[in-house]
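User:
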Amino acid sequence: MSEHHLLLCFLFFLSFSQILLSSCFSFSNSTKICPHGQSLALLHLKKSFSIKKSHSRNCKFPSYPKTEHWKEGSDCCSWDGVSCDLVTGHVIELDLSCSWLSGTIHSNSALFRFPHLQRLNLAFNDFSGSSVSAGFGRFSSLTHLNLSESGFSGLISPEISHLSNLVSLDLSRNWDAEFSLLGFDSLVQNLTKLQKFRLRSISISSIFPNSLLNRSSLISLDLSDCGLYGTFPDKDIHLPKLELLSLGGNYDLGGNFPRFSENNSLIYLHLSFTNFNGELPASIGNLKSLQTLSLFECPFSGSIPSSISNLKSLQILLLFDCQFLGSIPASLENLTQITSLILFGNHFSGKIPNVFYNLRNLILLDLSGNNFSGQIPPSIGNLTNLYQLDFSDNQLEGAIPSHVNGFSSLSSVRLGYNLFNGTIPSWLYTLPSLVELDLSHNKFTGHIGEFQFDSLEKIDLSMNELLGSIPTSIFEFVNLSSLKLFSNNLSGVLETSKFEKLINLTDLDLSNNMLSLTMSVHSNSMLPNIQTLDLSHNNISGMFSWNVGKDTLSYLNLSYNSISGFEMKPWKSMQILDLHSNLLQGPLPTPPKSSFFFSVSHNKLSGEISPLICKASSMGVLDLSHNNLGGMLPHCLGNFSKDISVLNLRRNQFHGIIPQTFLKGNSFRTLDFNSNQLEGLVPRSLIICKELEVLNLGNNKINDTFPHWLGALPKLQVLVLRSNQFHGHIGVPKIKSPFMSLRIIDLAHNDFEGDLPEMYLRSLKATMNIDEGNMTREYMGDDNYQDSVMVTIKGSEIEFVKILNTFTTIDFSSNKFQGVIPECIGNLNSLRGLNLSHNYLTGYIPLSFKNLKILESLDLSSNKLSGRIPQELTSLTFLEVLNLSQNHLIGFIPQGSQFQTFGNDSYYGNPGLCGFPLSNRCTTDEIPYPSQEIEAKFESGFDWKITLMGYGCGLVIGLSLGCLIFVSGKPEWLVWIIDKNIHKIVRNKRSTRGRGARIS
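Assistant: Predicted structure:
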């Protein structure tokens, strides 16, 4: 074609284009795109909502009120969030996500007047009270529906399954919305075109729909936190387009790790908080496009397969809080794109591999809570982009590497709870971005160096062997919020004025050191944000008057110092104030009204308790023990706080009566009035203290009979009435099964009389059949207060500063009990201690004592017991203390086991006893143990030795008796006769064969 013809064609094209464009503009100017009805519908929709920025606070994109500029008279197709069909003008897309909207979408809402909608996005608004109603099912042309995180609730209408053209459905994070089982099944069955299917946090409560694994069009599947259960299909997954699979948070959904074919596009896999288990298969190496693998809080086990090195695109690996074990594969060094490696809370062991040379993109490295040993690998020093390093709670040892290539971005270093030693390396003091440093619970020595930058917010160097003074640079950290240096060997004098710049400090713990403190004249209003302050176990002396945390301080512990005076400040938030074990003198300080715990025990305080103490209406623990306080107790002490669980007034000089009024529904767990001069009766109102576990009234002047009504307290475990003026017979219970929980009872040094209370002893179920193997060994009390009790062993009082929940003892010593020891005591087979000494008990030591298998202390001294020491007591292999002195016992002392360890003082005052360890030797013709021996023969049936019973009366009688026993099997009448008369036979035999003989 000639150039002339080409030119003509080009001119013709230009001319035609102008005509076409002109006609188009003419059409546009003469035709309205948005129909009037749809404009009105949109304006009605706008009016049905209110606008507030907080309604879209969770939006991941910039949010703004899109409907704010919707004005009547303008073209609605130009409105923000509205898109129309270019030909018909119908609204086909409505995007009101992140638009600050709030309101209810009713079934007759103007929203449903747009039948031609193809895309609808209402995400990140607040439509609380709205449901996904049937109206949404009428958008037959809809291809994209996003209602995520917008407050929808209630049952999702099954009509939504009619949206057969949907390509993308996102209803996630509407936490109160749910599918019916049929509704969800219909949805999965009908929406066959879905590419993106997201129902996160919608309640489904169904098994995993296997048919979803046949949708080759799926790109994204998020059914996390939906209540799915059952077993995930154990088959190969052929979804070549699938990029995201999220099933996390379905705690009852289990199975093996999903098997993906080599032809996959998976980028994100989230199975955390599920019951997927077993080992990771080698086929995990097929996920070559994977960038995020999240398997935390699952029972996966076994080792990490070396094929994980094939995941060259992996950036985030989250395998924490599982049951993985073994060593970390060295092939991990091939994951050069990884930014987050989080493996804490597993059972990994061995050395941390030296694989970090190539992992220069690593930002987060957390291997804490495992069993790693050895030293920190030197390649750690190459992680120049590292932000957080956590190797805490392992068994790592040795020194921290002394040289690194620079950690300019390192913000957090956590190496606590290991076995590191040596000095703290100098580079740790020079990190410009360091915010948190935790080297606690190691074996670091030397001085703490001076920090070069003031970025630190948290420092924990506690539980080491550091010494010297606290570095002055620490007092320059204006952003410091937590400083823990407790349990070291730090020393020196701290001036309170040094803390002046630490205005953001909330937690300060310098306890268990050798620090002293001087109060600055200008120390008022310091540490304005301090919440917890622990200076206990130091060398602080003199007057403590530091005015800190006026509005914020809630915990102050100054115990175990030498403080002689304390100035109470007007703390508004104080809850725990611990001043015990000091040298405080003068009157009792009145605790702040907000106090929950107040202890001034083991001081030298004097004077009376002011009734003002009862204004602390939130008090839970009040411990004034071991002081010189006196006077009468305020009547309000029993009813000033419903929360009070512990009232300890032990070892003071209080007199008068115990408060008589206790609040109904009170929380008293421990009441300790021991070692005062209190008198009168035991308050009957104690019967309403249903939570009471410890009642200690010992060493007072209380004059009363046995408080049998305390047996109705269901939780009472410790009852101490010793050294008072209790009197009379204990008698029989007035209720069925009293003292069911009682396991420590001390009635010693009173004037109780009569028989031992057999019926009460039978009710002590807490001293029977304790299965210590299946019990968690705990101490009575809680984190704030633990109970203690005094126990008398071999005449000496021993204080148990903590009461183990398996400890049991009975002490009825130094009373006027008489009669025989009940056999039922042998049923108390979990007893640790039994003291019945200094009474008027008679009869024999019960054979049933052989059942007290874990008895550690037995004191029956200073009674009138007779007969022999049962040989069966040698089976008590835990017995450490035995006192049978000052009785009328006779015969051989049993030999073997623990009895070989007891000295003369266990038996003195029993002239009829013989054998080791006494100097009295037994004659060879003594019968060593007649009663128990004969009873054992009867219990075992026929014995040929029975024929010897008739030695004096003839062989015929002996054989006859033997045959009779063989036939009838221990006839009760014969056993009874022999049991009653055997001791008489023994005495007669001794008098005829050994009269006048010297027992040597």
